[in-house]
Design a protein that fits this description.
- By secondary structure, the protein is an alpha+beta fold.
- It folds into 5 domains: 97 residues, Alpha-Beta Plaits (2-Layer Sandwich); 318 residues, Aminopeptidase; 80 residues, Immunoglobulin-like; 81 residues, Immunoglobulin-like; 55 residues, no CATH class.
- Helices cover 23% and strands 26% of the residues.
- The protein is built from 12 helices and 28 strands.
- It has an 8-stranded mixed beta sheet, sandwiched between helices.
- Helix 9 runs antiparallel to helix 12.
- It is globular and about 90 Å long.
- The relative contact order is 0.07.
């Protein structure tokens, strides 16, 4: 044994050294490859392994998780340069694959043969090549120019590069039967490629716009009646490209997507950049990007009932929530529509398409947010929680940037699913909320009693007071609430899946607005005070104040906080203030006055070293000079007895006076 042992030791040592050297070579190779992509794109896609899914939480704040494979415990991740350097310091082994970072088989629209670019549009449908940015922008304009009766181009703002003087914009096509007239109908939305290298949805959205216009206008089209019903009874918004800076990255002519990257021009992952109801604002450590701000403004100004955003890197329909393991109140409805999308793709695609399976999956091709992996700052949760829009995320292809020769196939796989999902936005409870006295529309919160939670309710919107509530089949009580109105509950309303149930006008009785009483002040100092009051029924207030005896008031309108701080007051002065209540469109007269007196200015101790020669020695007012003090005993100079002051014409809020001060 002693003779054999050294040989075994040597053999094991050689094997160990072989694998160690092989590992180091592979690691060096992956490191070099990572640096190559970081230098080229400012970001890198890579993968590494973990022992347990719970470890994912350790990485979500420092990088973007793209996918997690529970079978191999492999994490697929994205990082910009700063984030990747932080990851490397952890000493975790990783792999960088070319297929995750490079595009293959890309053909651009300007590279197509001339005979394939001879149609009425800049692009030929269905698209078999990726559009140059110029062709994309012109095509969006041509949709609106050629079909102004049902199509409008909406520019919601410039991208990071566009705002800085570049030429790229965030563009929507809006489709409706009366495009120039606001109507009471549900708004539904698609937006694609907020990750600039996940662009299968980019040409698909352009194909969909063209399909809708063609089928709507052609009465002989086999899909005419279905598409006409959708366009006539909803407002469809489609944004094919949400991150053109990333898609055309590092290409000055914007004619190639071969170097497309995930992030925007600032290197920020836009799908981690939204306010988050769990993690809070700016969880990614970045300010809201201009692209994020434009979409936030769009959501603020338009109540979308239903939406989806399109990505790539796997083939699955993902529904909320991403930021918590708690089920959405409409979990059953989300599963219904997500499964419908996946099944349509499975029926129209090849075997194995749209069938990715992740943790707790109830159906191939469907996953529930955080069960897959947890995300904070995502747009899906932002839209659902903050804007009561039922948004899902659809991953269209295992390869993020598919070869051009697969574009038509993916359009065929998804066409039916894309149409049927939008139609889901027209199902559910619908109606109008109005003032029972005036008949005016009312903004109200519409809640399914005992069902809704965590932002799942809906709202009625001005100018019509219309509301739309897709929901799983069942019997519900609907509660309608609005400030300054009596709450009303409509009971025992039964609805089936794929049904539109119109509830008509819901009339809310206005409450009587009460005048403010018990006016008081607190925290009064030399320049401000906190005014407060009591009003049982009111949602906003007007305040006015003045010096006692002054002829006019200073008004502060539309106040919603009580108490309210009035600032900019003069010291040692008696004021009076009054308050007026509003409740909806009803208002009271101003209340009686409450007086208060500001305090004197509290002077600090003089800081001069010698009061005999450090003081204010001369004051000149409106050009009158020689108002001199020769010494001081306190460090302050008292000019109040000087002959210059009685000559001043003291007028409340006087202007045009000048003063100069000379100090020793």
């Amino acid at each position: 044994m002693k003779l054999i042992y050294p040989k075994l030791t040597t053999r094991y040592l050689l094997v160990f050294l072989f694998f160690t050297i092989s590992f180091l070579n592979a690691q060096i190779s992956d490191s070099e490859r990572a640096n190559e992509y970081l230098n080229q794109k400012g970001e890198v896609n890579f993968n590494f392994q973990i022992n347990d899914p719970s470890e994912l939480k350790e990485f979500t704040s420092n990088m973007s998780i793209l996918n997690y494979d529970p079978a191999t415990k492999t994490v697929y991740a994205w990082a910009n340069t700063k984030q990747f350097k932080q990851f490397e310091r952890l000493g975790i082994s990783y792999k960088v694959k070319a297929e995750d970072n490079e595009a293959y088989g890309i053909v651009m629209s300007n590279e197509l043969p001339t005979n394939q670019r001879m149609g009425p549009y800049p692009l030929t449908f269905p698209l078999s090549a990726y559009p140059t940015y110029a062709d994309y922008e012109q095509q969006m304009q041509e949709f609106a120019i050629n079909h102004p009766d049902i199509c409008e181009l909406v520019d919601i703002g410039g991208t990071t590069e566009g705002v800085a003087g570049g030429d790229k914009r965030l563009l929507f096509v809006k489709l409706s039967d009366n495009i120039s007239t606001a109507e009471a109908e549900p708004k539904v939305m698609y937006t694609s490629s907020m990750h600039g290298d996940e662009i299968t949805g980019y040409p698909l959205m352009l194909n969909l716009i063209n399909y809708f216009i063609t089928a709507y206008k052609d009465t002989g089209h086999p899909d005419h009646f279905r598409i006409k019903n959708l366009i006539d009874n909803s407002e469809v918004w489609i944004n094919p490209m949400a991150n053109p800076d990333g898609t055309y990255y590092n290409n000055a002519s914007n004619t190639s997507v071969a170097n497309a990257r995930r992030a925007n021009a600032n290197g920020v992952d836009l799908n981690r950049n939204y306010p988050d109801n769990v993690a809070g604002p700016h969880d990614d450590g970045n300010p809201y990007q201009v692209e994020t701000q434009h979409f936030m403004t769009l959501a603020e100004n338009n109540h979308f009932v239903l939406s989806a955003n399109f990505h790539g890197g796997t083939e699955v329909v993902n529904y909320p929530f991403d930021n918590t393991y708690t089920n959405h109140a409409d979990d059953d409805w989300f599963f219904l529509v997500s499964k419908e999308y996946a099944v349509n793709c499975q029926n129209d695609g090849p075997s194995g398409y749209m069938d990715a399976t992740y943790a707790n999956s109830q159906w191939p091709g469907v996953t529930e947010g955080a069960d897959w992996y947890q995300v904070f700052g995502g747009r899906q949760d932002f839209m659902n929680f903050y804007h009561q829009c039922k948004e899902i995320t659809i991953e269209l292809s295992n390869t993020k940037l598919i070869p051009s020769n697969q574009l038509v196939n993916h359009w065929n796989y998804n066409k039916e699913a894309l149409i049927e999902y939008l139609i889901q936005g027209t199902y559910g409870f619908q109606g109008f909320v109005k003032d029972a006295v005036t008949g005016d529309p009312v903004e109200a919160t519409v809640t399914l009693v005992g069902h809704d939670a965590v932002g799942s309710h809906t709202v009625s919107s001005l100018p019509f007071g219309d509301f739309y509530r897709p929901v799983i089949a069942g019997t519900y009580d609907l509660r309608f609430e609005s400030p300054c109105y009596q709450t009303f509950t409509l009971t025992n309303q039964t609805i089936a899946n794929y049904q539109t149930k119109t509830l008509g006008d819901i009339l809310l009785t206005p409450l009587t607005v009460t005048a403010p009483t018990s006016l008081s002040t607190s925290g009064t100092d030399s320049s401000s005070t906190n005014v407060s009051w009591t009003a049982t029924t009111a949602d906003s207030f007007d305040i006015r104040y003045r010096m006692v005896g002054a002829p006019s008031w200073t008004e502060i309108l539309g106040v919603t906080s009580n108490p309210y701080q009035i600032t900019g007051l003069s010291p040692n002065t008696t004021y009076e203030f009054q308050v007026k209540s509003y409740c909806g469109s009803n208002s009271t007269t101003y209340s009686g006055s409450q007086q208060f007196t500001t305090t004197n200015i509290n002077y600090c101790n003089a800081q001069g070293n010698n009061v005999n020669d450090e003081y204010i020695g001369n004051v000149s007012i409106n050009g009158t000079n020689h108002n001199t003090v020769s010494n001081t005993s306190s460090g302050y100079s008292d000019f109040t007895a000087s002959s210059i002051f009685p000559d001043l014409d003291i007028v409340y809020n006087a202007t045009g006076n000048s003063i100069s001060v000379t100090k020793h």
